[in-house]
Amino acid sequence: KAGVTQTPRYLIKTRGQQVTLSCSPISGHRSVSWYQQTPGQGLQFLFEYFSETQRNKGNFPGRFSGRQFSNSRSEMNVSTLELGDSALYLCASYAGWGTDTQYFGPGTRLTVL
Amino acid sequence: SQELEQSPQSLIVQEGKNLTINCTSSKTLYGLYWYKQKYGEGLIFLMMLQKGGEEKSHEKITAKLDEKKQQSSLHITASQPSHAGIYLCGADRGGADGLTFGKGTHLIIQP
Fold first, then answer.
1. Secondary structure of A35-91 in HEC code, one letter for each residue
2. How much is the pLDDT for B94?
3. In the A/B pair of chains, how many CB contacts fall below 8 A?
């Protein structure tokens, strides 16, 4: 079974631009969560999608948004990028119910200049 | 919000030695996950513990969840260079805001 894939792996943007990151979950998994990892704050939960619906949302500004498609693939978008958005963005895939193991992708390293 | 405290923050161990990493929660855990991360890469799932007193092992790594479900330990026996990395514990708070993670323990194995 293929693992979680994320594209692109690396991205460099400038302040004010927007960016879209993609995550393809493990086949059969219906839920995707997104996390931001920075040296200062560690891993922080952004949002969770299940069957194309946002199920939970972390404490991030509205510039951070996401969506999930019918094939469970998910995208997250960050508009009006700020320097502080530089981070490793990780998505996690899981079946979607109960206490279920979350499997993480390799991440997208976003650098904002 | 529930916080997870990991200790130690960093650890340098001579190859072949045993080591233990701890993860303490201020609230009862519904599920406790252990992951390993190489710098700048994704998280590799190690183990998940749910029941108080539960203990799981995989190769030379053993994880335990205490009876009160507020503390977990990760023990590595006869450490190897491949064990080097960042170990993260993550807590399930019952389906709310994703997993809450500790700050991680940086493990260095000295040959």
1. EEEECCCEEEEEEEEECCEEEEECCCCCCEEEEECCCCCEEEEECCCCHHHCEEEEE
2. 67
3. 57
